[in-house]
Amino acid sequence: MINTMSSAVFLCLLAALSTAEAVRTLLFSPELNRSFFFFFTLSLPFPLVDGVCLNGGRSVPSFVTGKHLYCECLDGFTGTHCETAKGDSCVEGIGLYYRGTVSKSVSGKTCENWDSQIRNRYLSSDLHSGRHNYCRNIQYRLRPWCYVRKTYQLVKEYCDIPRFTPAPSAAPTTPQTPAEQTCGQRSSRKQMKIVGGTVAAVESHPWIAAIFWRTKSKENVFRCGGTLISACWVVTAAHCFPEGSQARHRRFSVTLGKNALNESDPTVEQTFRVEQIVIHEGFNNSEQNYNNDIALLKLLAKHGKCAEETNWVKTVCLPPPLQSLQPGVTCDIAGYGKEKFGLWYKSQYLREAQVNILADDVCRQTDYYGDMVNNNMFCAALPDWSQDAWGGGPLVCEVQNGLFFLFGIISWGDGCAKENRPGVYTRVTNYNTWIAEKTRLPSITAGTMFPQK
């Protein structure tokens, strides 16, 4: 029986990671990650770009084209080319990589030294092997924190460390480009390996949207993931609205730039009420086939404006109509949801995984899904079936020059990460005309940013 994902729609990411304490310690080691990256690059079939990344940074190539994708900077440097020194008095993003020496909390109290358990698990590669009291973001919270002593008890407090702000660039000498021509650009590629999956900073997926539903008791419950395609429009899955045309838009809201479901950061997040819900007229899940599993949410503008572009909030590009991907291409999925199939609780953090596109004829074989998969869908999975996803969120692919295009909407699957049961995605390029008609924004569906052959 196909999992209907009713009442709550989850993202499921399974990673074949050991639960041994030693492995968990290694997964949090930046030095190990850089060593792995060094040996990995030796086996690449194409040369890395020299001179692109400064101050000891390494160029990371695209797995598809082999061209430079982004710079992995050494601690203490940031920027597109690692050109800017951060120092130890400010943090970038939520401060996952902060290695400064600030040791006071927001209340002005001096931080306590980290205990041996935390040092062994998280800080073995840190300064003095973690034997210090410096603020760190070791459990993926909103910013670096530490323990302080209050009334003879140890409590967690955030540290008052300013955010890193890059120097303003010179004024452009050419006219500003339309908004749709700035789509699909990541601010950075930041992620942290943990047992059960990969946690990603929202800068890595700045188009991700978290859709919430307000209950009668005024509680905001996470309903689905979505993708920002223009300042005022989010695309998601139609199955996220089991109420169908009866779904009340006033009870929904959308938050952009969200790192964790159970925490809010008003300096990063942008939240909007929903003005309109548009569910595809052809969606009918009475036979559990999820055909035409696509919907649009129009954000209610504030003072005449919807989403504003920042490092944490950006639109994704849409490919041209009917554009297809070659089997085997690696793409990214992201969202908030279950860490393991069968767990009742959601992952609190934004997670990501990479999947490979499957050939249509493979996914339609009888030992896969047969005729349940039609031309409005495609399948993607990893060869070892170790990761999968559900929940209305995006499947995006880096095509060229670091631009990401939305090819799929996480739709359905049988179980999660089961062998011969890949994830099934709505084929977005079949709906360019429909999106243009509903949003009245034909420019975003023309696919003008897609590289011409």
Automatic annotation (TrEMBL):
The UniProt entry, under CDD domains, shows: KR (cd00108), Tryp_SPc (cd00190)
The cross-references to InterPro entries, in alphabetical order and at most eight, read:
EGF, Kringle, Kringle-like, Kringle_CS, Kringle_sf, Peptidase_S1_PA, Peptidase_S1_PA_chymotrypsin, Peptidase_S1A
Which enzyme class, named as a word? hydrolase
GO molecular-function term, one example from the UniProt record? serine-type endopeptidase activity
Q: Which residues form the EGF-like domain?
A: 45-83
S-S bonds: C73-C82
Q: Where is the Kringle domain?
A: 89-164
Record keyword Protease present: yes
Question: What's in the keyword line of the UniProt record?
Answer: Disulfide bond, EGF-like domain, Hydrolase, Kringle, Protease, Secreted, Serine protease, Signal
Q: Which Pfam families match?
A: Kringle (PF00051), Trypsin (PF00089)
Q: For this protein, what reaction is catalysed? A: Preferential cleavage: Arg-|-Xaa, Lys-|-Xaa
Q: Which residues form the Peptidase S1 domain?
A: 194-440
Cellular localization per UniProt: Secreted
Q: What is its EC number?
A: 3.4.21.4
Signal peptide: which range, if any?
A: 1-22
Q: Which GO terms describe its cellular component?
A: extracellular space
Q: Does the keyword Lyase apply?
A: no
Q: Which GO terms describe its biological process?
A: plasminogen activation; regulation of cell adhesion mediated by integrin
Its main localization is secreted
| Name of the protein in its database record | trypsin
